[in-house]
Amino acid sequence: MPVKATEEQAAARDSFATGKDLALVAGAGTGKTSTLVMMGAATRRRGMYIAFNRPIAQEARARFGDNVHCSTSHGLAYRAAGGRFRARLDASQHMPLWRTAQLLGIDRDLAVGSRRLKPTTLAHQVMEMVRHFCYSTDQQVAARHLGTVNGLDDHGQQFLAQVLLPRARWAWDDICSPNGTLSFKHDHYLKMWALTRPRLRADYILLDEAQDTNPVLEEIFFAQDAQRICVGDPSQQIYEWRHAKDVMSGFPGQRMELTQSFRFGPAIADVANHWLRAATSTMQLTGHAAEPSRLTEVDIPDAVLCRGNADALAEVLRFLDQNVPVALVGGGKPLLNIAKAAIDLQAGRRTSHHDLALFSSWGEVQEYAGQDSAAADLKAIVELVDTYGPQQIIRTVQRMTDESQARVVVSTVHKAKGREWSRVRIGAGFTQPEDDSPRTVHPAAARLIYVAVTRARHLLDVTGIKRLQAHSTSATANTTPDGIPLARLPLTGQLKYPRSPMSTFLARHLPHSERLVASYLRHTRGLPHPVQPLNERRPDYAALGHTIDYRLRLSLGSDPGPAAIAGVDLIGSTYPVEGAPASAVRANLHTIGTSILGRLHTHLTDPNRLLDDDELTRLCFITGFFEDVYRNGAFHRKRNLLVHVDRHTTINGLIRAVPSYVLDDIDEQMQLAEEPFQPLRSLPADQRVCGPVFTGSADVKADADFITNHILIDCKAITRPHRLGQEEVQQLAGYLLLDYENHYDIREVAFYLSRQGALIRWTVSDFLGTLGARAPLPALRAALRAHIGRSQSGGGGK
């Protein structure tokens, strides 16, 4: 019997019937699959439904009609490219690492600083590089595909990446060969298929769980000519740490919502809405479950959901002490492996556990986890072992029950995603002991709690987060998670928050950013893949972006701009700057910065003292870090080259510290810029404006990249150009509108993709018309000026 559609579901179905691309934001339990089935049933066109995993795809096959093909991305890839590797796939799935090392020609330890990596550890890292490559949009294996190797500092990890890169590229060639010998995995044929730039045989494509799409599938989906419908919930994006990306937010389709949840009632919906606001979402759920929902303490729930493994183990122990049969979602094998590795290390023996293989003692693990800010996963392991001890962990795992026989299941939120239970208790690990004063919860933490509370159908026990919920301020307050008023943020900062003055104005007056994104994507079809560094494990893309911006400004006859000068002046002042070095070092930095700006100015003004390209790039790279201090009001100690300066450092010493990959990368980008920028360089000086500041910049801090011949150009040094979306479009629109008095007489707007050498342009009338403007440009500028004024005076600004 067909399910009766709600008004929201019917509206989504009707929108689908128009043939337009659609981004369907479906809150927890709002019947997204039912809605997709309705879409499929409303047409005889050929459809394709791409599911997150095989069980979901199998369930979907029973619900969709014959006109919709249901599959996972791996299923599609297997039929297209993986089938011919079937025998090898079956035979090599469980190849031991010693054999992999043999095939890779790795037969001895590698010394990296004070660490020694065994051949099996090296073989594992090589195959991990290949795996990371398979989930990327890259065309070849690169140094950046080496993941974090616990026990090595940044220098050691860069050295290891360069050593292993040739073997990783050989491994990929072997994997692709019909006569290859290395282990063959499902991810390998997925990447082979993606590299063919496949066209899916369907009139429309339904992409499920779009908020957690891996980059390789995202690129395939965006490249299709068929009607595209992505469905998911951006507020349930909790796998970003595994490189999953939210396709929903920047998708160039009509945005619609499903907000009526059939999983739970109003009581649970109210809790969910609190955390949606904290996650900066504008969506609000209503509870429409057939049975009532209640908030109450539950002694023996069906499920307890925890923040991490340490909290989960504590819950398991509590139930075991009460003789309650309890299971851990995912099983206890990973915990057993950690415990056994800890026993070896505590006894002074090395372990083969991949996360701990470089350490010779447990003390080394503790020390490294305490010092390295990037070792979050390792910190969790140390916390687990130090809290309970490895023997206790082993005994606990041995006493656990299989989930099918358990009275209670305990799970981390990540492993509970996609599931639901009648009675759910939220663990206490989300609340820290000091959470006693009002504060704003970070959106990532709020998303995790939102996923947790929406797993419950009937009874929800929020005792574990009650204090945090009572003391947390939500995103309805017009502040950032750090308490900064949204109205005080610069343009780019405001666009990250839907309730900021700029975001609310643009959403109302230029509501169709998705149409402009779609136009942009049509222009990018057929462009070459972006150039980017291949031999650097962690390219500093932000610093590279500053550098190419400065090089392009210099090519147009302009210096790096006022923000760079302000950064040098700030460091030379006595003004307190977070993370700043001692006053003597600041004074030296000011001297160096002043000298660098002087050299760049001389290059522009004295034809007899021109600098070569490499020196220009080095000086520009360093200059970007001065601007970074000004923009952020702080020294970012991990990446800022300036933090390595002492009072004795010379300008030449700092210049020599610029990594060689920077020179190669900027050289490639400058070569790509030769053709599109040649006509701009020949313009009169007054038509080449770099770093323009607008009348409205006094209201909303904003300075653009270039205005040349009345064309406003925003330079984007992005490695994944199809990810350019709403924020970037609104940024360009913001610049245009902040020129309140038409000082620059802007007639066209453009994006310049510096890693592809592509200049994509629109006339102002086409740009505003595509965005859905209902008023001419002067009226929009006047309205924005009034709106910003009201918001800054506390009058809101609807």
Structure write-up:
This protein is of the alpha/beta class and 798 residues long. It has 5 domains: 7-82 and 192-258, 3-Layer(aba) Sandwich (Rossmann fold), CATH 3.40.50; 94-179, no CATH class; 268-431 and 438-473, no CATH class; 479-536 and 670-798, no CATH class; 537-658, no CATH class. 46% of the residues lie in helices and 12% in strands. The chain is built from 31 helices and 23 strands. The strands form 6 sheets. A 6-stranded parallel beta sheet has the order 3-2-6-7-1-8. Strands 11-17-15-12-14-13 form a 6-stranded parallel beta sheet. A 5-stranded mixed beta sheet has the order 19-20-21-22-23, with helices on both faces. Helix 6 crosses helix 7, helix 21 runs antiparallel to helix 31 (777-792) and helix 24 crosses helix 26 (613-632). It is globular, with a radius of gyration of 28 Å.
How many separate domains make up the residues? Answer: 5
Q: Find the count of extended strands (DSSP E, 2+ residues).
A: 23
What's the arrangement of strands in the largest beta sheet?
3-2-6-7-1-8
The number of distinct helices, counting runs of at least 4 residues, comes to: 31
The helicity comes to 40-55%
The N- and C-terminal alpha carbons lie at a distance of: 44 Å
Mean pLDDT: 91
